[in-house]
Design a protein that fits this description.
The chain is an all-alpha fold and 126 residues long. The protein has 5 helices and no strands. Helix content is 66%, strand content 0%. It is globular.
Length: 126
């Protein structure tokens, strides 16, 4: 099974959100402590395209839409960082579940996740 630190996941998420926001693909959130990114523009664009496609497929009437959008984003970032071949590993989805549960247990991270999900849905609804 994969062993991934929550801090590493949080850093990767911050970097990806920062990269996407810097490219002006997503509206800036209220999070002022987003770090600078080391990711390439091509990597950020690839993730953005994958996320856009998957988020657009979510029903607009789904009350869990923003939560699902954040999960899609998280999965995309992790697949980019850990390798696309992880998509076929059942342990990958267990890691995603664990990371989300851990992040939701921290009220600050939970709020950031909710803001990110709303931003993803609103910016990709066209």
């Amino acid at each position: 099974m994969l062993s991934v630190s929550t801090n590493v996941m949080a850093r990767l998420i911050r970097e990806q959100m920062s990269s996407l926001q810097n490219d002006k693909k997503l509206p800036a959130s209220n999070n002022k402590d987003l770090g600078k990114t080391n990711l390439s523009a091509a990597s950020a664009q690839s993730i953005l395209e994958l996320v856009q496609t998957r988020v657009r497929s979510l029903s607009r009437d789904d009350p869990q839409r923003s939560k699902k959008a954040f999960r899609i984003f998280l999965e995309s970032v992790l697949l980019d960082q850990l390798g696309a071949n992880m998509i076929n590993d059942p342990a990958f989805y267990q890691v995603v579940d664990t990371v989300i549960q851990t992040m939701e247990s921290d009220i600050h991270l939970k709020n950031q996740m909710e803001q990110a999900g709303v931003s993803l849905c609103s910016s990709m609804s066209t």
